[in-house]
Amino acid sequence: MKTARASSKGGWAVYAFTAAFFGCFLLWPIWQTVQGAFVDAGGGFTADYFVEVFRNRFYLEGLSNAFLLAAASCALCLLIALPLAFIADRFDFPCKRLFSVLILAPMILPPFVGAIGMKQILGQMGTLNSTLAALRILPLRDGIDWLGHGRFWGCALMNALHLYPILYLNVVSALANIDPAMEEAAENLGCTGLRKFLKITLPLMMPGLFAGGTIVFIWAFTELGVPLMFDYNRVTPVQIFYGVKEIAGNPFPYALVVVTLAGTALLYLASKLSLGRDNLSMMPKAAVFAGTRRPGFLTGILCTACFTAVTLVALLPHLGVVLISFSRDWYGTILPEGWTLSHYKAALGHNLTVPSIINSLKYASLSTVVDLILGVAIAYVVVRTDLPGRHLLDSVAMLPLAVPGLVLAFGYISMSQEGRFFSFLNPTRNPAFLLIIAYSVRRLPYVVRAAAAGLAQTSVTLEEAAQNLGASPWRAVRKITLPLISANILAGGLLAFSFAMLEVSDSLILAQKQQDFPITKAIYELFNLLGEGRAVASALGVWAMLFLGLTLLAATRLLGKKMGTLFRV
């Protein structure tokens, strides 16, 4: 009884703190944004601003482009991820373990940094046109302006090459959960090949497919960095970004954010309703053999070739960034005409980069501490207790995955305007606190999911045995449970820290003074500088790429196939 009371008391404390945390730094900024969209100058309710978004040709074009961009990005991700996931689940082909690591490579660089490399490859005087000129297919002076005529597809391709691993991880996880007895039963009844996939396998993996697709769609719909880099300004996230400068006297940025939030909220709700239904893929597996099979020689080569081709294409932006970082001059040639290491030295010694690295380390470290404490506590309440509402707590903890960083950052700007309760947090004075909170809110789901996975695999009887021997509930958790799930906690913490280091939307919007810039804002500012700015930005991007690559590799080794659960709404 004492243990139950202690557990209940601690659980309610977690409820209270989580409610206060999300109330102040998730719901309140959203409410302030909604209020700005529906309150007129006299303080009365009005829907005119909201309706005008759908009447104004400029705003309507931005919304239409953002939606189409998200749909195209999602479709491209599906075309890439679905075949790869099916191959990885069914066949044990050559170099499979290597590709299971390389599949995450596109995620080691923020897509807006990869856009620097893609612009070099697809620009009018870039690598592709230079190659066509060298092959005498097309004169360089008549080179196709691939990005000028196709900025939309350039953005969609960059999003897809960055986001398809999320969809892949979810699909692989869903396929691993399918009861093989169902597919065998279908085969025994004559349902084989493509028909079996469409009638049996695809419906069973639909929850994982929909979960990953929702994240990809929301991410692409609200992506700010890639359109900025490609100068694709007629899209809602960029319109909101420029509208921040007029936030004090223009209600339309508020209305744009509310429309964006409404769209992502509907997707999140649809995902929760879909995943909340009972589905056969989550039933206990039958006692039959369902391992991968070794394909024939030709099939194995084809499987390896598929992964190789996708990986090479996905790493093209990274290769472009790396080459730019080493180049002295690169204009109108296939490869740079000269090579240097000076940009790497500048990236670690430039008056814009060094403070940004220190700032990012500070912001990301403190936000990760918040995530570890709150995330592990939430996961424990959800998995280990039977308190009422614990599943709601889990859903609330996952909510930041459905709230885009763009919306959250705008909400923080809104709630900290002069005359409002949180005006003392105005980022124009010092954005450190809001950046730390923004990073922690956005990355909390990773820690919750990782810790919950570890707790679900660890028997509660070990804690009970410790308590029966006289240990207090807290001592049993600290001495028994936490060491057993330390690998999961470490993996979640690594992901939270590394993605916070390279957060884009929050950094671009909230950091407004040079001394407060994190790494991603410094890269953006360097890219816009004349001279060697682009090369120094690329070098800083390569340092960030190496850092994030090592953390993702460590997290993958710790979590394995469970990585996909971290990217579910």
Tell me what the structure shows:
There is one protein chain. This protein is 71% helix and 0% strand. It has helices at 2-38, 48-55, 57-90, 96-102, 111-122, 127-134, 146-149, 151-176, 180-188, 193-221, 225-229, 236-243, 252-276, 297-314, 316-326, 342-347, 353-384, 390-398, 405-415, 432-457, 461-468, 473-484, 486-501, 505-510, 519-527, 533-559.
Largest sheet: none
| Bulk shape | globular
Helix content estimate? over 70%
Radius of gyration, CA atoms, in whole angstroms:
25 Å
List the main descriptive attributes of the protein structure presented here.
0% strand; 569 residues; 71% helix; mainly alpha; single chain; 26 helices
Can you lay out the helices and strands and say which pair or pack?
Elements: H1 2-38, H2 48-55, H3 57-90, H4 96-102, H5 111-122, H6 127-134, H7 146-149, H8 151-176, H9 180-188, H10 193-221, H11 225-229, H12 236-243, H13 252-276, H14 297-314, H15 316-326, H16 342-347, H17 353-384, H18 390-398, H19 405-415, H20 432-457, H21 461-468, H22 473-484, H23 486-501, H24 505-510, H25 519-527, H26 533-559
Could you provide a short overview of the structure?
The chain is an all-alpha fold. The protein has helices spanning 2-38, 48-55, 57-90, 96-102, 111-122, 127-134, 146-149, 151-176, 180-188, 193-221, 225-229, 236-243, 252-276, 297-314, 316-326, 342-347, 353-384, 390-398, 405-415, 432-457, 461-468, 473-484, 486-501, 505-510, 519-527, 533-559.
